[in-house]
Amino acid sequence: MPIRILPPEVASQIAAGEVVERPASVVKELVENALDAGAKSVTVEIAAAGRTLVQVADDGAGIPSDELALAMERHATSKLTSAEDLFRIATLGFRGEALASIGSVSRLTISSCTPSSFMGARLHVEGGRIGRLEKTGSPVGTVVSVEDLFYNVPARLKFLKQDATERRAIDALVTRYALAYPTVLFKLIEDGTVSLHTAGDGDRRAILATLYGVDVSRQMLEIIAEEDDFKVTGFISPTALTRSNRKEITFFVNGRWIQDTPLTSALLQAYHTLLMVGRYPMAVLFIEVPPEEVDVNVHPAKAEVRFRSPDKAFSVVRRSTRRALLAYTPIPQLATQNLWGTSALPGQVDPTWSLAHDIGGEKQNQENERQPGGVDPQPPITNLQSTKAHIPLLRLIGQIGATYLVAEGPDGLYLIDQHAAHERVLFEKLMAQFVRQKIPSQSLLTPAVVELSRSSAELLNTQIPVLLHLGFQVESFGQNSYQVRALPALFAHSDPAAALHALVEDFEEDESPLQNEIEARIAGRVCKRLAVKAGQVLSPEEQHALLADLETCTSPRTCPHGRPTMIHLSVDMLERQFGRKGAR
Ligand code: ADP
Ligand code: MG
User: Fold this and answer.
1) How many angstroms does the Cα of residue 39 sit away from the middle of ligand 1?
2) Ligand 1 mean position to 29 CA, how many Å?
3) DSSP H or E segment with residue 343
4) CA distances for 509 relative to 82, 91, 168, 565, angstroms
C-alpha cells in the first residue's frame, strides 16, 4: 500500500483513543477542565454508567461565546502559549485535546457563559462535526454533556466492562478528586440518585469517610510534612488496617492523580516489617512540589509524571510516612510467645524457628527443585509432598506456639499450620454443601448491622444473590449499611461483621469470571477470614476435631490458596539430621 495521510476523522479517532478509554476518562477530563476554570462547585451526572450520559457542570470562569467553537478544536487551549511553559505547568490540562477527542467519539453539547457577558452560548458536536453556535441564557459557568459515548466506534464499546465496574471507576475518580480538592463542592449523581455530595468546606477527613466508611476514616493517620520544596499531606492507614492489594494507595502530585508510581514503593518501604507478607496499607497522599520539579507531559492521559529528582521524592515520602507510622503505632513487641520462650514479630522469623522455616519455605523448595543436587552442601531436608493426596491417620501430640499442631504419623512427624488447615477444612465443607445445593444457614438471634464504604456497598449489592446461595442472608439497611440476618451454619460462631468485610474486600474488579468461579472465590475468601488464626489457643478437643476434619479432606496438604497446610519430617530425615544414619 502506498503511504497516505490519514483522513482527519480517522486521525482524530486514533488521537481520541489515547485520551478517552472509558466513561471515567471523560469524567476525568471534564472535571479537570472545571477545576482549571476555578470552579467552586462541580456536579457530575451520569446515566447507565456513563454510556448514555456524562455531564459535568461547573461555576467556573466560562468560555466566551466567540471562543466556544475554537475550544472544540484539537490543540486549542488557553493554558499554554509557548513550549517553555510545558515545564512549569500549573493547570491540569495543557494539551488542548480533551474536548476535541471526546467530541469526536460522542454527541457532545457544551454551553457556557462568562461573568462579563449577558448571554451564554451553546454548541453541539456530533462525531467531531461542529454544529452552529446558538445564544442561550445560562448561569455563569460551563456545562458539558456527553451522550452516547463511542456510538460511532463500536469496537471501543465492546471493551467497556460491566456497568458496575465502569461506575466504580467513575466513583473512585470523583471521590479522589473531591479529596484532592476539599474546598470545592463535588456532587455525583448516578441515574438520578445523589451518590456523593461533599461540603466543599476543606474537611478532608469527612470526605475520607465517604470513601472508606466512618470507622476506617477515623483510624487513618494524618500526614503533614515538609522538606525543602516538597510538601506531603494526606492519610495513611495504621498497621492494623490493611488490604490484600495496592488498589487503595492513591497519590496526587500537584493536584493530579498519578497511577503506578514508584512512590508506592516508597510508601511500602515505610511499612516494611510492620505488615504481614501479602498485606498492603491504604493511603491517600498529596504531594506538592514547584511545577518545574515535575514533567507532567509524559503520559497521554496525564496519569504519570516524572520528577526532576526522583530519589528525593522517594525519600521524602518514605521518611514522612515512616515517621508518622512510628509515632502513632509503636512496633508490636512480644506479638507471639512461642514454646521456646522467645518472641517473634509477626512476619519475622525467630531464629529458633529457622529449621522449620527452611523446611517450609516455599522459596527454598523451589530453589532445591531448580538445581537438583546443586550447590547446597546440605542434603535437602524437604519432604513436602505437593501432590494432592490423602494424609495418613495421625496421632495428635499437641499444639505449639498456639499456631501449629504436632502429630505423629506412620512415617515421622507432622507439623500442621492450624490456620491453613482450618481454611482447607472450611472450604471443602462449604463447597461440598454448595455442590449439593444446600448450604445450611443459621439465623442470628440479633442481626448484625455493618457499615461499609460506598464502593464496598456497591460491590456487595452485585453479590447479594450469590451470597444467598452460599447461605448468607444480607439485607440493605439504609445507605451503605447492611444487616446480616443469617450466616452459613459452618460459620455460626464467627463475627458477622468480619464475614461481611471478607465478602467485599479484595474483589478483583477487572475480572468477570464465570458465576461458579465467583462463588468459589468468595467461599475461599470467607473461609480464609473466618478460619482460626495463628496465635489462637485451641482446646485438645478442637485440635482433635481439626485433625480429624483435615484427614477427610480431598486436598488436605494445601490451603485453598495453595500454601502448604503441613510439613512432614520423615523418620528417615530425622535420623539423618541426628547423624544416626548415613556417613556424615
Ligand atoms: P486543555 O484543558 O488541555 O486546555 P481541553 O480540550 O480540555 O484542553 O479544553 C480546551 C479549552 O477549553 C481550555 O483550554 C479552556 O480554555 C476551555 N475550557 C474547557 N472546559 C472549560 C470549562 N469547564 N470552563 C472554562 N473553560 C473551559
Ligand atoms: Mg482539559
Assistant:
1) 12
2) 9
3) strand 343-344
4) 41, 31, 9, 29
Is the alpha carbon torsion for 89, 90, 95, 96 positive or negative? negative
Say if residues 250 and 205 touch (Cβ distance below 8 Å): no
Coil, strand or helix at 87? helix
Q: Helix 496-504 to helix 515-530 angle, to the nearest 10 degrees?
A: 140
Record the cell numbers describing residue 453, joined without a space.
Answer: 464504604
* Torsion 411-417-419-424 (CA) sign: negative
Q: 165 C-alpha vs ligand 1 centroid, how far in Å?
A: 28
Shortest-distance Cα residue to atom 1 of ligand 1: 96
Residue 422 has what pLDDT? 93
* CA of 97, closest atom in ligand 1: 6
Q: Choose which residue among 19, 29, 36, 102 to substitute to test ligand 1 binding: the one with the highest number of ligand atoms within 8 A of its C-beta.
A: 36
Q: Could you tell me the distance, in angstroms and rounded to a whole number, from the CA of residue 311 to the centre of ligand 2? A: 30
Query: Which residues lie across from 142 on neighbouring strands?
Result: 58, 112
Which atom from ligand 1 is nearest to the alpha carbon of 95? Answer: 3
Q: Which helix H or strand E contains 337, and what residues bound it?
A: strand 336-337
CA–centroid distance, 456 to ligand 2, in Å, is 30
CA distance 243 to 250: 13
What average pLDDT does the chain have?
Answer: 82
Predicted model pTM: 0.64
Ligand 1 geometric centre to CA of 40 (Å):
16
Residues in contact with ligand 1 (CB, 6 Å cut-off): 29, 33-34, 37, 58, 60-63, 71, 76-79, 93-100, 142
DSSP code at position 319: H
The tens digit of pLDDT for each residue in 170-203 reads: 999 999 999 999 999 999 999 999 999 999 999 9
Reply yes or no on whether the pLDDT at 353 is more than 70: no
Q: Are 444 and 496 in contact (CB under 8 A)?
A: yes
Where does the pLDDT of residue 584 fall: very low under 50, low under 70, confident under 90, or very high at 90 and above?
very low
Rg (C-alpha) for the chain, rounded Å, is 29
Ligand 1: nearest atom to the Cα of 91: 2
Cell numbers linked to 328? 502513632
Q: Which residues in 490-508 are b (16+ Cβ under 10 Å) and which e?
A: bbeebbbeebbbbbbbebe
The ligand 1 atom at the shortest distance from the C-alpha of residue 100 is 6
Least confident piece of the model among 44-48, 87-91, 167-171, 539-543: 87-91
